[in-house]
Amino acid sequence: MSYNFKSYIRGRKASAKPHQFIGFSEFHTCVCGIESAFSRQEVTSRPSSDFFEKVLAFIGFSAYYSSFSRRSSVTSSLSSTSTGGQRVGKDNIDYSHDGYSQFTQMGSGVSGSLQVSGFNTFDEVKELEDDEDEEEEEEDKDCNDDDFMVLNAFDRNREQREVIRDELDEDELRHPLVKEICRLVQHRSAWNPKLEGELRHLLRSLKPRQVCAVLRSQEDERVALKFFYWADRQWRYRHDPIVYYTMLEVLSKTKLCQGSRRVLRLLARRGIERRPEAFGYVMVSYSRAGKLRNAMQVLTLMQKAGVEPNLSICNTAINVLVRGNKLEKALRFSARMQLVGITPNVLTYNCLIKGYCDVHRIEDAIELIAEMPLKGCHPDKVSYYTVMGFFCKEKRVGEVRGLMEKMVKVSKLIPDQVTYNTLIHMFSKHGHADEALEFLKEAEERGFRVDKVGYSAIIHSFCKAGRTDIAKELVNEMFKKGCIPDVVTYTAVLNGFCLVGKVDQAKKMLQQMYKHDCKPNTVSFTALLHGLCRHGKSLEAREMMNMSEQEWWTPDAITYSAVMHGLRREGQLSEACDLVREMIRKGFVPTPVDINLILQPLCREGKMEEAKKFMEECLNKGCSVNVVNFTTLIHGFCLKDDLEAALSLLEDMYLSNKHPDAVTYTTLIDALGKKGKTEEATELTLKMLKKGLEPTPVTYRAVIHRYCQMGRVEDLLTLLEKMLARHSCRTVYNQVIEKLCSFGKLEEADKLLGNVLRTASKIDAKTCHILMESYLNKGVPLSAYKVACRMFNRNLIPDLKLCEKVSKQLMLEGKSEEADKLIIRFVECGHVVS
């Protein structure tokens, strides 16, 4: 086929658009090659130089335009891991473009001379956009057995490959390149083009395992993910497959499930083989985020990707189901995997044993351990430790010993030091110090040496129970056995003395620490100061804090908070405020709870100016002052009848971007009503409703009380109608009637009785009884009789004794007919009247 004029025109049009030209050239060359196979005469008739000129021209155009497009996906698999970061240079140009879709991503992968990078590009790197068709994530629902269908893809005749384990060498973490890149990443906020260029240059020199070391060295996994994306976009660099798996492993320890899902998708885009372990990491991440449904849907995603399951992904799925309290589904999954030929291992059974223990099916767990050898899998010590942990929590020492004997006789597993350390820590953790001490002595009798960590756990358990004498004896016993106590052991005893009020002995323990060359730390001093404050010696604790520099220790936020609370309890408010100011100067930020605990007593004592000044200082220093702190101050001004200052604080809240809540408005509404400023209170109530705040029961009570007190029932009903439109309150009219009765406004109360009798409840009956008693006290028994009749008409039986009083009053007034009718109504309802 000749290169005719039409082809020439199409080539010119395509050359104007590089992404189209590359596809056109590849297609045209392919067609020429196919036709040449059927028409050899035409090919042989052309000069060889003409043929090579066209081929070289195509290669030149392809190379030229491919330098502008984004590098294509990586086609290497895990089996072909390289010794360094893959580089794309002139000699290995990758032509695996897909035309326009690759060209549209141009810009992030251009070479250094063409790329114009701004500051902070590391933090500005956006995660991959979800441009692939993907199922929308549903809310966390109960997972079904449809997710188990992935097991049908298992080929029992195919040899299963082992799980890839990347054991990171400690030397990689200490490598100068790794340290320098971590330093640059930490100071990314001060980046400029020069620093980013240095990082880009260092990145190309890193080996894959060194890149993995950088990812694992980040304290914040989000920073590691951003570095991963940033590096992936750099020119002349591509991630080794092992880096992708390391990134997934890092994310599996967090709740960043979306990030792990995108990395998994990126593996597919790069053409890298996705092993079941990659999907397992994503499942674990979803599980940590509490999204069990999404975690199990990863199996469906794995099935669609054509990845065969293995034992590793099955164990992950079972573990996810157990952690999600879906033991029955985990058991069905285990049975299903055995049907398709995947043999469970000890890890599978240990997950199920833990699931049984979590739901207190301990007999089933023990039975599963007994069945494991019959299924060709012998239990290990973890299998027994899991059940022992449940027995330790329940203080069932006999069962623990029986399980140890079974572990020795049946499974031939000899208890070692790890076994005893596990039991000691389990019993100590759950507060069973005597049982822990019993196993400690047994371990030492068998020749095992319990370290100071085990002793400290038991001592701490005894101290929490207030048994400091035994704890002190154990410390002396440690010295005799050559197990020198450390600062943790001493601090546990010191804190125990403080808990039982033996502060003097706690001080002696502190001196004993110095005597034995054990320097107390901040935790030790904080425990002592907390004990002093709890027993009314806050000023002494304050003096010890002032001596902290001489004692070579530094108070922390917990220390300041403990002493501040002690001073507040003892009424030393000025000293407490000074301590908070010092706390702020030292860089420790008090919580809103701490601030409120200072404001409340100041407001209670009427020291409003001091309270306001204190909160303003906290606000100016950047402390987290919240709406509760403002409301406390407003309430204090309202108690002092300084409404102008209270309303001014309400405006200050908006200026400080602290939006008042319903409690704030209720406080002001009640204060305005108390002063007789009903119009201002109404305006503030409407303002609260306009801002979308729902009135609380306290708001209703405050409004009802003030309006009923002034006798403005009509205005009250109008306002209540607007409040009820925002938030319903079923007993609102009951409150109005009862409040009107208390103020002697019975006629207004009687008019609202119809609103109450719409429902026949005990609350409504109580309201009617209050109105009847009010009528009787006012000497109007006939009105009380009418209320009782209205109750009978609504199938609501009034109180018999109260009606007898009404009947007697009616008889005294000569209204015997009404009195008889009232008694007859009771007889008709089946009540016996004496």
Automatic annotation (TrEMBL):
The lineage of its organism: Eukaryota, Viridiplantae, Streptophyta, Embryophyta, Tracheophyta. This is Pentacotripeptide-repeat region of PRORP domain-containing protein. Transmembrane segments: none annotated. Keywords: Repeat. One of its GO terms (molecular function) is mRNA binding. It comes from the Eukaryota. PPR repeats lie at residues 275-309, 310-344, 345-379, 416-450, 451-485, 486-520, 521-555, 556-590, 591-625, 626-660, 661-695, 696-726. Belongs to the PPR family. P subfamily. Pfam families: PPR, PPR_1, PPR_2, PPR_3. Gene3D superfamilies: Tetratricopeptide repeat domain. NCBIfam families: PPR (TIGR00756).
